Amino acid sequence: MQQRRPIESFTPQVRNVPIRPRAWRALVETDGAIVAEREAGQLALVPEDGQLHCYWAFSTLDEMRLVFTEMWQEVRPAIAASDIDHVVLDFVSVQNRDWLEPMLRDADFAFFAEWM
Fold this sequence. Notes:
The chain is α+β, with helices and mostly antiparallel strands. It has one domain (14-106). It has 4 helices and 5 strands; from the N terminus they run E-H-E-E-E-H-H-E-H. Strands 1, 2, 3, 4 and 5 form a 5-stranded mixed sheet that branches. A hairpin with a 2-residue loop joins strand 3 (41-48) and strand 4 (51-58). 13% of the residues are buried.
């Protein structure tokens, strides 16, 4: 008899890249990945191609705004420990970016050149 798959209890509405739940689980389980988790969502720094890529998945934009800075501060020490110059952020799923820059500034991101 075939067993039913459990329904995911967390369905994020806000992601920076489109990714299916199974691929997300594999991403955050990557060797060397640093993941901060809250009830509102997850923030992950994942090593890919010699760089750290930042991925996020949150239940709502408002909840993301509330916990992003705290979660970023949690994973931030891994950047210095990795000897990597910068973090790659992909915004392919972010339709309206007006809220993004202030949130990243609050999290103490260092911007350079034409970053967006």
